[in-house]
């Protein structure tokens, strides 16, 4: 209350009614979520498990089906190539049939083709069925984040944290589960994935409700060729080709490394089977997950996006060179693989964040186009690494990875002037992920 006395007048009492300050909003625990959210998160985890699931069983498939290393590494190539191509068009699909339907179609394809891969009698059949698996995976992962955000309690930030957690756990656990089931039979990981995804399908179809339609809100539909046309954007093109060459190195490490590990162990009289390979790549996956979720945000906000990209590409080139020189030592290879996982985790997050900031394209289109080119880069690596190893030597694929990482650095150097938008103060990782989900400008 305050009192004022104007000249020549009686005192006037002015009363100000102070409104009570609103009570601080209680932060909801990330664990208190609707069951539908946990169903999607579970399916996300299993979906990301599929990337590294076959890694520990590649040598076993080679022996059981009398296939060469180059042939079995095509399990990665067919999966990643189809995933990459499909990524250009998933926005068009989901904008027409809806998020829930897209999720369920993706899950059906994963279940069917994972089971067929497990029942295969030749490596050629598995390669073909992995391609169908990749199509299902593209449809599923392109819409999973949107579904979690729509169903989660506590705001989008909680949903994004759950999605990132599911991604990290899936990438880490995939090789471990593949190793455990693969030690029984190479067919085990395929049937196990089909069973887990079937559980996720039943949970999602039962628990996830489609969002209510707002008649007043216009329905945003993407053109069929929107993803391909996005490559006309110079900044996106620079980052997509940076990712293409980087992902070549990423999947040289992931798809090729089981073979020199097994050979190095055999040279010293040690058996190194699916179980041991699963443990090694579990360590790699844990390093990748920790760096993606925790380390990357700290580094990018302290040093900036581009410096972090250059530093991580340099670190990975050093690790690949060390692996090439030390490919006959099991211990050295394991150490370099795990350290590379840290660099790859930071690199994945930093590259994606740069893509979101460097272009004025709709975030959903930029993200899907970038992911499509990136997966294609990953698809090329396994197809090339096997023949090069046979022709030149076991260390040669790692030297190729060093070369492609150098190309990535050069692309960033010469295309850096196109990334001026990425130099502005940027949003938090949560805000960026929300923007990707909404497809906002």
TrEMBL record:
Residues 36-420 form the Major facilitator superfamily (MFS) profile domain. Residues 16-26 have a biased composition (Basic and acidic residues). Keywords: Membrane, Transmembrane, Transmembrane helix. Residues 1-26 are annotated as: Disordered. Signal peptide: none annotated. GO terms for molecular function: transmembrane transporter activity. Its main location: membrane. CDD domains: MFS_YfmO_like. It comes from the Bacteria. It is a multi-pass membrane protein. The keyword Acetylation does not apply. It is found in: Cell membrane. SUPFAM superfamilies: MFS general substrate transporter. GO terms for cellular component: plasma membrane. This is MFS transporter.
């Amino acid at each position: 209350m305050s009192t004022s006395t104007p000249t020549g007048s009686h005192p006037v009492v002015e009363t100000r009614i102070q409104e009570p300050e609103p009570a601080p909003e209680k932060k909801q625990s990330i664990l208190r979520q609707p069951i539908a959210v946990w169903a999607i998160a579970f399916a996300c985890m299993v979906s990301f498990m599929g990337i590294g699931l076959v890694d520990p069983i590649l040598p076993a498939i080679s022996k059981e089906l009398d296939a060469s290393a180059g042939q079995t590494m095509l399990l990665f190539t067919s999966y990643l190539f189809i995933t990459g191509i499909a990524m250009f068009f998933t926005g068009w699909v989901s904008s027409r049939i809806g998020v829930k339907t897209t999720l369920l179609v993706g899950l059906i394809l994963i279940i069917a083709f994972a089971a067929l891969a497990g029942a295969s009698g030749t490596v050629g059949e598995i390669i073909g069925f992995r391609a169908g698996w990749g199509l299902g995976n593209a449809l599923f992962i392109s819409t999973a984040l949107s579904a979690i955000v729509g169903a989660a309690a506590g705001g989008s930030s909680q949903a994004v944290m759950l999605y990132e957690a599911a991604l990290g756990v899936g990438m880490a656990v995939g090789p471990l589960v593949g190793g455990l089931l693969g030690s029984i039979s190479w067919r085990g990981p395929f049937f196990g994935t089909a069973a887990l995804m079937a559980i996720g399908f039943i949970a999602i179809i039962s628990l996830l409700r489609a969002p209510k339609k707002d008649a007043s809100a216009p329905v945003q539909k993407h053109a069929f060729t929107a993803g391909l046309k996005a490559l006309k954007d110079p900044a996106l093109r620079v980052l997509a080709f940076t990712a293409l060459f980087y992902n070549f190195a990423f999947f040289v490490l992931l798809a090729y490394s089981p073979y020199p590990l097994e050979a190095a162990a055999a040279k010293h009289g040690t058996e190194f089977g699916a179980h041991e390979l699963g443990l090694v790549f579990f360590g790699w996956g844990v390093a990748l997950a920790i760096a993606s979720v925790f380390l990357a945000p700290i580094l990018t906000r302290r040093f900036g996006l581009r410096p972090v990209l250059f530093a991580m590409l340099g670190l990975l080139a050093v690790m690949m060179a060390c692996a090439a020189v030390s490919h006959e030592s099991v211990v050295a290879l394991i150490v370099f693989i795990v350290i590379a996982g840290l660099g790859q985790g930071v690199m994945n997050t930093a590259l994606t964040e740069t893509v979101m900031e460097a272009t004025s394209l709709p975030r959903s289109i930029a993200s899907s186009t970038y992911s499509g080119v990136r997966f294609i880069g990953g698809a090329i690596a396994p197809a090339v690494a096997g023949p090069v190893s046979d022709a030149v030597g076991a260390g040669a694929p790692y030297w190729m990875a060093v070369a492609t990482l150098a190309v990535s650095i050069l692309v960033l150097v010469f295309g850096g002037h196109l990334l001026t938008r990425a130099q502005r103060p940027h949003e938090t990782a949560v805000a960026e992920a929300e923007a990707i989900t909404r497809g906002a400008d």
